[in-house]
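User: Can you recover a sequence for this backbone? Please restate the input before giving your answer.

Assistant: Of course. Working from this structure:
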């Protein structure tokens, strides 16, 4: 925004919009009244509240008290409120949480629309599919260090297998074979299989996913995270076409590596205080080892 952060004063808040994951509205007011109130706090140009409510699919519920809203409706109202003053920088915490596919698609399209208008957008999300779909550049951050930075496509190619998996039926028995991508067009075994009297069901390049990159070594992924030394996995700082960013936080049990999103529980392990539980409840052994570690 053309100057350093320490050069700004209160006018910085005119440039920043924030949507939290947990709804924090005036629930005795209607959605329209909420937006009208927050609009009055800004001195610059703003959007019309009703226009914003229509953008997020709440136009017909504009005069309904927020206390009667569902979680998904409150999340959409969060997004609308963060946009009211036409911010240049936008922070969205789980903007699609609790939304059905139709409304989630609408919010994603709205985000990309503002991105195209020049708004810089930061997203916090656990959803790697959202990050993969929306974002152009990803930085995996673990233990406070950036471990990998690239586009989602480049990361998936780098950490996936450079091979093609062929699934076929031979005499009603399903079989699989993998072939390296290099020289595939001249690979006699691959060509012979395609020409053989078998039924080819699927051909897949062995591209990984952002979820798999996220998993530790002894699971399906490439292990950018060491589960025995860090239980809070801060993932995916993402840039979308130079304008959209995302950060994801996930958890794994330090004993069995079961992935889960736990309730916030203060715990202590090897002298390091964590703000999340570090042992899962699906395995009694894990909990016993957790309590014995103090």
């Amino acid at each position: 925004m053309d100057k350093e952060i320490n050069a700004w004063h209160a006018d910085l808040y005119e440039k920043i919009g924030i949507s939290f994951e947990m709804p924090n509205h005036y629930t005795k007011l209607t959605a329209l009244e909420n937006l009208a109130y927050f609009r009055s706090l800004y001195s610059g140009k703003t959007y019309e509240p009703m226009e914003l409510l229509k953008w997020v699919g709440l136009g017909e519920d504009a005069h309904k008290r927020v206390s009667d809203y569902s979680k998904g409706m409150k999340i959409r109202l969060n997004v609308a409120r963060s946009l009211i003053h036409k911010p240049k920088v936008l922070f969205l915490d789980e903007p699609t949480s609790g939304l059905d596919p139709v409304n989630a698609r609408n919010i994603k399209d709205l985000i990309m629309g503002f991105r195209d208008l020049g708004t810089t957008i930061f997203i916090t999300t656990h959803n790697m599919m959202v990050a993969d779909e929306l974002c152009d550049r990803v930085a995996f951050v673990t233990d406070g260090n950036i471990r990998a930075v690239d586009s989602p496509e480049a990361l998936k190619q780098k950490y996936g297998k450079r091979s093609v998996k062929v699934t076929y039926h031979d005499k009603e028995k399903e079989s699989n074979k993998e072939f390296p991508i290099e020289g595939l067009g001249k690979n006699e075994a691959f060509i012979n299989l395609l020409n053989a009297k078998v039924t080819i069901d699927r051909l897949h390049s062995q591209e990984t996913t952002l979820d798999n990159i996220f998993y530790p070594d002894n699971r399906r992924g490439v292990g950018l995270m060491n589960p025995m030394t860090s239980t809070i996995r801060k993932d995916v700082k993402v840039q979308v076409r130079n304008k959209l960013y995302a950060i994801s936080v996930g958890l794994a049990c330090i004993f069995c590596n079961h992935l889960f999103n736990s309730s916030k529980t203060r715990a202590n392990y090897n002298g390091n205080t964590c703000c999340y539980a570090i042992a899962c409840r699906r395995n009694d052994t894990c909990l016993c080892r957790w309590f014995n570690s103090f």
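That completes the design. The first strand starts at residue 16 and ends at 19.
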